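Session log. Operator J.P. requested a structure for one protein chain; no other inputs attached. Running the standard single-chain path with token output.
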Amino acid sequence: MQPAREVRHTSVLLPEALDSLDIRSGGAYIDCTVGEGGHALAVLDEPAKDTRLLGIDLDRDALETARWRLEGHGGRAVLAEGSFGDLRELATSNGFVPADGVLLDLGVSSLQLETAQRGFSFSRSGRLDMRFGASQQTTAHDLVNGETEQRLATLIYKYGEERKSRRVARAIVAARPIETTIELAEVVSSAVGRGRRTGVHPATRTFQAIRIAVNEELQNLECGLAQAVEVLGPKGRLVVISYHSLEDRIVKDFMRTQERACICPPDAPACVCGHVATVRLLTRRIVRPSDEEIETNRRSRSARMRVAERL
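Structure written below.
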């Protein structure tokens, strides 16, 4: 397979992420969601820094494009197919422990959204899939057509924060079998209704929920964050860009917990937890894209970045 020569994804918060990583000469960096290689290329392009970078992704198509974009940097760029839920193993086996920086840019790429057969988009007709990696077993088609109505309602409410989750689940079960993204979008839209015009498609929350469930995104995020702290060396930076409240809540709670020397309940008479602070929080408030970036890249508008430094 020849690598795709068209780069479709525009990296979000690129200057801010690069600055937050605090690139060091000879440093080792890990991009846990390398995608088409935008952030990775910027790390390797830092003048006279002679950095090394490990790029991880489940998406083989994206890795092929990243490999093409980074080939000019030779052995300083190492790419690995896998999940950041296995970060410790991937970093260790490729010689990136300790790391000077770890970046997680979460969410869906433009390449995935614009490729109809990947089944991510409710505006492009394709078979329901939504897997980040071809090696994954469960697809969106499996969940939509195989889960019980109660289970679907729970997933859509929990991962999509859709208030009409029961109505949506009922409509999905009644319309089975559902084969394509457009079919699913129409079923969900009919169940939710258009309501007030907010510019947000009525199927957005349901599609998000199914995608998160298929890829076990939140579970992998929790595992990846914990392992990122483990692989970072002293003063190494953890930079996380999230795109919805579920992700950001996990990142915020994780960083704040890891910053504390004690996590005992407030009413505990003495500390018995044995917890040790592992990071220093560098962003008390989330970093958001500028108005100029949002104007040129509408998909960046929901992005929020948090940064911590390993003690």
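Operator note: The chain has two domains: 14-111+217-310, 118-215.
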